[in-house]
């Protein structure tokens, strides 16, 4: 069985299960990030462990990619995976697929020296697909996959964010 057939069968099973019991699709992802040295962070979720850091020029240790790299990687990989899932489900053979993410930013906002918003000024993505399928089928597949993409939604729609604070103080109250 080739990889696209494997994906098609798995997507079909998941689609059927979620259609029969939508609550199976609900969940909460939990990752924990801990400062381990200066600005270096250890990020854990399940069995996965990542390191995020900042360049030495801004006080980091350059021990890992910046959070921005992970953000762009999450966006690009979510799109690429979604496109392959949808192409497989639609029986569109893909020989090669690549997503390039470009994001413009103003670091002055991070340091309080610019009135710009601290997020990206603009995000662009280019999808390069090698296939024998007709362009109309590819564009249809991309449109459907974009409508179903979690990270395209995260990047293009304001999300509700709720901050909770826990302060642990070594001071003993008298």
What does this protein structure show overall?
The chain is built from four helices and five strands; from the N terminus they run H-E-E-E-H-E-E-H-H. It has 174 residues and is α+β, with helices and mostly antiparallel strands. The strands form two sheets. Strands 1-2-3 form a three-stranded antiparallel beta sheet, with no helix packed on it. It has a two-stranded antiparallel ribbon with strand order 4-5. Helix 1 crosses helix 2. The longest helix has 23 residues. The model has no long low-confidence stretch (mean pLDDT 94).
Describe this protein with a few key phrases:
alpha+beta, 4 helices, three-stranded antiparallel beta sheet, 5 strands, single chain, two-stranded antiparallel ribbon, 35% helix
Secondary structure elements and pairings:
Layout: H1 3-20, E1 32-37, E2 40-45, E3 48-52, H2 67-89, E4 96-104, E5 122-130, H3 135-147, H4 150-156
Antiparallel strand pairs: 1-2, 2-3, 4-5
Helix pairs in contact: 1-2, 2-3, 2-4
């Amino acid at each position: 069985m080739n990889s696209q057939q494997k994906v098609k069968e798995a997507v079909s099973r998941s689609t059927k299960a979620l259609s029969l019991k939508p609550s199976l699709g609900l969940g909460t992802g939990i990752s924990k990030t801990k400062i381990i040295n200066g600005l270096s962070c250890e990020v854990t979720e399940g069995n996965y462990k990542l390191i995020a850091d900042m360049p030495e020029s801004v006080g980091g240790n350059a021990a890992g990619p910046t959070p921005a790299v992970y953000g762009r990687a999450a966006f690009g990989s979510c799109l690429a995976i979604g496109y392959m899932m949808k192409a497989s489900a639609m029986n569109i053979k893909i020989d090669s697929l690549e997503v390039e993410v470009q994001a413009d930013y103003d670091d002055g906002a991070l340091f309080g020296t610019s009135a710009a918003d601290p997020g990206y000024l603009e995000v662009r993505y280019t999808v390069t697909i090698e296939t024998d399928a007709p362009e109309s089928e590819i564009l249809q597949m991309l449109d459907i996959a974009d409508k179903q993409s979690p990270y395209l939604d995260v990047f293009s729609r304001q999300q509700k964010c709720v901050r909770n604070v826990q302060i642990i103080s070594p001071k003993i109250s008298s």
